[in-house]
Amino acid sequence: MHYEGNIIRPPSEANSILLQVTVGCSRNKCTFCGTFMGERFRIKSDDIIMQDIAFAAKYCKKQRRIFLCDGDVMIVPQKRLLHILTEIKKQLPWVTRVGVYANAKSLKMKTVDELRTLKDNGIGIAYMGLETGDDVTLKNINKGATSETMIQMGKKAREAGIKLSITVLLGIAGRERSQIHARETGRVLSAIDPEYTGALSLMLIPGTPLHKDYEAGKFTLIEPDEMLQELRTMIAHTHMSRGLFHANHASNYLPIRARLPRDKEETLKLIDQALEGSVALKPEWLRAL
Ligand code: SF4
Predict the structure, then answer these.
(1) In the chain, how many domains are there?
(2) Is residue 74 within 8 Å of 46, Cβ to Cβ?
(3) Per the domain annotation, does 82 fall within a domain?
(4) What is the CA radius of gyration of the chain?
(5) By C-alpha distance, which of 75, 51, 60 is closest to 16?
(6) Residue-number span of the structural domain to which 140 is assigned
(7) Strands, DSSP E only, in the chain?
(8) CB-ligand 1 contact for 169 (6 Å cutoff)
């Protein structure tokens, strides 16, 4: 397989075939993100992508899922993306689900019908970084979308039948807006009602604008107990019809895996116990991105 630059994939795609379709991220402006720093976004040539599909057809016969890397493959023009999906279907008929990253901008560029066509041709799940539902914070981190746009785009993907996995970021609003961020994120998650939500805890990456703000004293990195308070408020304000809420990423202090709404009260109780000190938190040295 031909890989270039930093390859990232969601934790749940750990066993998937990783087919790199783009290099970098089409936005690449979020102040906290160092994943594709300095990387110019581009779509890889069809020749290389087809060679990789042929390679996977030969050597990846046991993998039932495929993830199209890097950041934001949903931005690939419809015709090209359909061509890739058709080849996957033809050459890897055992693959049951194609996953991609998507952001508000790329979802905005596709109609519901186009998204439905992508779904019918294999895309089963889109991973979308919401980070926060707080409009002030969305602007501060240069996410490039308002909470209303996030809601509309999330709903659009779901209307097309594509499962949605949304990432939110504990600590991203700093101290002052921590609780507002938690409540507003709950509001947006409730409106989108995704199948999966993953809460990560902010870790500052040297070289990013947010890290520079932190060094200049313009951004406060909240403490573990404040992250837990944030998580508690967020879950309390998230009203889903059904969905998995995970906070079991390596960056998190307290691993949580809750099916909402069923496990809500139990999860809030667990967070309260951790806040009281009767449940241990993950030590700092064990955290990672
Ligand atoms: S957070 Fe996502 S959309 Fe923003 S720059 Fe990083 S990869 Fe791109």
Answers:
(1) 1
(2) no
(3) yes
(4) 19
(5) 60
(6) 11-277
(7) 17-20, 22-23, 42-43, 65-69, 97-102, 123-131, 163-170, 196-201, 243-246, 257-260
(8) no
67 belongs to a structural domain:
yes
**92-141: pLDDT as tens digits:** 999 999 999 999 999 999 999 999 999 999 999 999 999 999 999 999 99
Question: Domain of 250: which CATH number?
Answer: 3.20.20.70
Pairing of strands 42-43, 22-23: antiparallel
166 C-alpha to ligand 1 centroid (Å): 13
Question: Has residue 287 been placed in a domain?
Answer: no
- Regarding the beta carbon of 35 and ligand 1, being less than 6 Å apart is answered yes
| Residue 79 domain flag | yes
Give tens-digit pLDDT for 66-106. 999 988 899 999 999 999 999 999 999 999 999 999 999 99
Residue 72 alpha carbon to ligand 1 centre in Å: 8
DSSP class of 284: G
